[in-house]
Amino acid sequence: MKLRYSLVCLLCFYSFVTYSQNSYLTPLRKIKVSEKEIQSISFSSDGEWVAAADEKGIVTLRSVASDAILAKIANTSPAVFHDFIDQGKTFLLLDQSGRLTKFNTESKESSFSDLSKGIKVASLDPGQNYLSFLNRENTIEIIDLKAGMTSGRIQKLNGMESTMYLGFDRFGQQFAAINKTGDAITWNPLNQQLLRQLKLQSGEFSGSKSVIHSASANSSGDLFLIGLQEVFIPKGGMQGRAQPERRNMIIAYDWNSGQEVKRVPLRYRADGIALGPGPMNMAYYSSDTRTIDLLNLDKAIVSSSVAVDERPSSISISDDSRFLAVGTVSGNVYLYEIVINNPSEVKIVRPAINRNIGDQVVNDTNLKVEGVIDGTDKIAKVVVNGEPVTMDMSRGFSSDVKLAKGKNRIRISVQNTQGMVTEKDFYVTCEPTVKGKEDKQLPSHGKRVALVIGNSTYASAAKLNNTVNDANSMAETLQGLGFEVIKLTNASYEQMKNAIYSFGDKIQEVDVCLFYYAGHGLEVDGTNYLVPIDADINSALDVKLKAIPMTGVLRTMEFANDEGLNMIVLDACRNNPFPTGKRSSGSGLARVQAPSGTLIAYATDPGSVASDGDKSNGLYTGELIRQMKISQRIEDIFMNTRNAVEHLSDGRQRPWEEARLKGVFYLK
Asked: Which of 280, 316, 521, 615 has its CA 20 to 30 A from that of 135?
């Protein structure tokens, strides 16, 4: 289970210094939820709703925007797990007594079912299909939420009596339990096969003992973190009133190899961890303080802190990385808005901008940027898009910036005399009015990375004629458009999975990233899977075990590149040669809702199949490549491809797209 995060500094309450991507917290509101300690917090995937559970078992659902109360759910025992599923339409709540509550946020009606008694800890898979929990018999049960029945059981975990954490990898194909003394066991949740046993400990001092106080993973990453305290006898021994010494640290592990990746010594014990926004950020709190520390894991430094009025007891970051919530022992929840690349030290005077990326549209390729540096630091230099500019006596600056067609990122970097750097980004969309040859000479911009996969020679299915040709042609086209391309042809399961991990590492803070797949694609129970050439598939379970879930690819892109344009192109709706058993829509792929800033394009509409083509390229990819070589907006590329394919196939093949773009983009 490969979970490798590059994490770092989240943000800060006041103005602060950053080293790479800037993120900081701005206070939104303080909410009085209960008179009792807040033990857990969850957000809906769109950040619209926040839920907080107190130690008595009362869970309150509120609007993040208006603070209006949606519902209060009272339990007879404390909550073990809660989260929003089905795009926020259903709120899932499991308490210690084993009662599972499903609350419909639209109708405000609840349904109940009773599971095992004495629930200790629980977790939901990334696809929100399986709820796993550990009961008082030290048995893990895996519940299929759609079927409403147990789909797997892992019996009697020796040494896991003090299990404090359950979690899944980004693909939902590996599952882990961690106890307070650092024992970690990993299984495949689909067939309950034991995969790995690890001992998570520090061991820096002879005879020391390691105690795990917190653990966390993110459904889009490939690392998991633990907050650990190492207890040891000092060199001089236990003399007089001497007490055992304690060292606190956060340790990151690679779940694919089980090896330690990074450790960061801390001043205070990490009692709670939240990951995000993006791959470079995390926040943690210690029950011994009233601060939320922001950690740069790469540089092993705490970059900034936020103070709350009471001792913190829980922490959570919304899936869309817009909000952070901190629960306290006094029953309060502190809400913060996470602002990325918009530090308060740099104020933009011109052009007039707002926070909505891509809303500012200009027609001129030359833009006058003016700003002011707010603060008392002595400034050594100001740089706009890599070009030094002069600051006047009033700490103002100006620069002429050359724009390219489409979305442009403008970065202002300010360095003080101590070498500390603050950066501010904003975005402008350029739609120039130039025509003809002059239009074609406009420069391309931004970093672009693509992963291209074409599978043809399947071990257990007939060969596909054009998928490798399609991948080669797509890779060549993307390279001509300025993309760094990772290309795989006839890839195995491990090769595909490792390539997706490498892709995630490369697309941090890029302007455009693209994932292209040509080959067999299957849909099982509403989830789309990409089929490696070594997959021997005879059932729906085989698909889940031996194919790559598209949700893992989507989360990789959304997590690693949360500010740029993400595109997924699937020419994978071929006729299904595999006996997959139960399927929700027969042939073809299922519709997937695109996250913000993402375009998902399918070779044909949901439930249908695409032609493999009778030429060197498939019908869809061949036309798409032709359109990509024409200077036009992203939306027009796919619209014109769709129209051409429908015409050439006499309406038998109808491509479609799901898009939630933040601005206007051009590939050429």
From this structure: 316
